[in-house]
Amino acid sequence: MAPITAILLFLLLSPLLTTSFVAGEPTAYEALASYDFPSGILPEGITGYELDESTGKFRAFLNGTCSFSLEGSYELSYKSTISGLISKDKLTELNGVSVKVLFFWLNIVEVVRNGDELDFSVGIASASFPLDNFFVSPRCGCGLNCDDEFRMRKLKLRNPSVSSSE
User: What start-end ranges are recorded for coiled-coil regions in this protein (predicted)?
Assistant: First the structure.
């Protein structure tokens, strides 16, 4: 391949490269931590991400969709692309994350950190959970109840507080 062709090919493909593949750049989980969020709000297996630090726009990528149950109370589903806006202690305009409550799938549209709790909003209602529930990233398919010993930690759903939006 001629050097000029290689340079043109690199310039054409460079916008497709995500931040997490650049040497020395933080992983998606480390990027979350820089905004005061625990890594466990994303499942294991994020293959890359894009983050515009000037606007807070982000996209995180999985190899496919991902779903799992948490203590039989909730079922979570992630699309292959998760997007939204991130700022310190706040994720807004979320797309690609859903929770099954009773018989209905609801999109999680916002996550806010309030001290030692995370508030998850589906628009019409929100639920708060202790921050320490999210220090470990769940695995697609088995969540936090996977076979290996490291995953045997149970999610502490200590009476989450639920409220409706005003």
Answer: none
